[in-house]
Design a protein that fits this description.
There is one protein chain. The protein has strands spanning 2-3, 9-12, 16-19, 26-27, 34-41, 44-51, 54-61, 67-71, 77-83, 86-91, 99-104, 109-114, 119-126, 129-135, 143-148, 155-156, 164-170, 173-178, 187-192. It is globular and about 45 Å long. The strands form six sheets. The chain has a four-stranded antiparallel sheet, with no helix packed on it. By secondary structure, it is an all-beta fold.
């Protein structure tokens, strides 16, 4: 894992961060284990590290160069996203199927975002809100669901019998890929939790 400590950064495929303003690359991890799935927010980089084929959640602090093991259990975790003090990740501890958990980095407490039949995947987090893909067992239909790390009820945003996938969230806005029109090309849909800004709509 490599990282560049600067205010302008982007994640590399090799699980690292490249400093745009200084063109510097710094190695974060140097052990023989596999690291992947980087997610970056502010001064924190979350990633998955595999030991014995099992993924754990690690977090690297750009400010002081320290890293911490945030989640470690017998199941395998895969980091998906980070925002503020929350890292969200896929977890197979309730296999078959995949569920979504979160860890609060301020106190290192873990909580289940969603545990349900089928597969819950591709979580993205903004503040306390989490959005993800949800599919029922033996179903090819995939929908978008939103919930919270804590304190709210999960809500299914899509019901169309097609595939919706790759959700992203920022504040009150959720966006995703959508195949409902069946034209061979995916479209982008959006959902606002509050009143959309003036001029929001289809281009």
């Amino acid at each position: 894992l490599f990282v560049g400590a600067t205010s302008a950064v982007m994640v590399l495929a090799a699980v690292g961060v490249y400093a745009v303003t200084t063109y510097a690359t710094i190695q974060v991890t140097n052990d023989p284990l596999l690291q992947r799935d980087p997610a970056v927010k502010g001064g924190l980089v979350a990633y998955t590290e595999f030991a014995g084929g099992v993924g754990d959640v690690w977090v690297y602090n750009l400010a002081d160069g320290t890293r911490v093991l945030a989640v470690n259990n017998a199941a395998s975790q895969a980091v998906e996203d980070i925002d503020g003090s929350y890292v969200v990740y896929g977890d197979n501890r309730n296999s078959p199927g995949n569920d979504i958990y979160a860890v609060n980095l301020s106190n290192m407490t873990e909580s289940a975002v969603v545990v349900a039949p089928g597969n819950q995947t591709e979580p993205a987090v903004s503040g306390n809100r989490v959005v993800w893909e949800s599919s029922e067992p033996d179903s090819t239909n995939v929908d978008i669901v939103v919930g919270c790390v804590s304190g709210c009820t999960n809500t299914q945003l899509t019901t169309d019998p097609s595939v919706q996938f790759h959700p992203a969230i920022s504040g009150d806005l959720v966006v995703w890929d959508d195949t409902r029109f069946g034209n061979g090309n995916g479209d982008i849909f959006a959902y606002w939790f509050s009143t959309p800004p003036s001029g929001f709509g289809v281009p």
